[in-house]
Amino acid sequence: MSKRLRLVQCLLWFPMHMCLIAFLVTLSLKLSGSTMSWYRTMVPLWLMEALLIWFVLVIKSVTYKIWGVLSVLSFALWTALLAVRLEDTGDLSWWGVMTPFWIFLALINVVRREKRKTDYDNYSKGKKVFEVGFSNLVASLAVFSVLQTLVMSGAAQISWTLRFIPLFYYIFVCLFTLFSMWQQENFDYTQSILGLIAAFLILLYFKGNNNMLPYSSVMLIPVYILEIVIFFTIFTKRMTKHF
Fold this sequence. Notes:
Elements: H1 3-31, H2 38-57, H3 62-87, H4 94-119, H5 125-152, H6 160-163, H7 165-181, H8 189-208, H9 221-242
């Protein structure tokens, strides 16, 4: 990738993360009982998705660019349909709402494979470990979302604990990976990401299990930390590479 394209991505990286942080704030307010609509809550996320499409379009690889744009568009469609469904402003079934999300999960697996084909030799040991965590997360989310959709659509009665079994599996994968890598050298931020995701999922379980977590916004604390870690680590690396 040329220096000019790297600079463009660096400049886009900052507003993208600021939009994501703004979305986390609006989501925290909404979960805490704010009367703002789901449309207003989603606005920062939609802005981030628009910037992300621009970010993907400057990538040199045509194949990576196509799959990347399709994955962002499918995620954007899902968030739009989700906002409509949560606001009860449209006659949408939960199966229709979740279909773009499942397409998104399939597409990002393709995107990650393309990334590994073009840049595998440059991957650090930690990034290769993260790839394992990423694949397991996609599979766990797919199964969990199907079970959740069955319940929300009224097609089945499944307890929250049973629905959470796929994510329990992912939590186990995260913790096992962390414990196995903890004593090794070159422990980097990619492993800490797995720990923060596991922490969020554990808090999510307690929140969904008869509201054992009193404040909904508390479960987003690991996500805030995760966002800060990713932003400062990757932004610093990108700026160092360019300058």
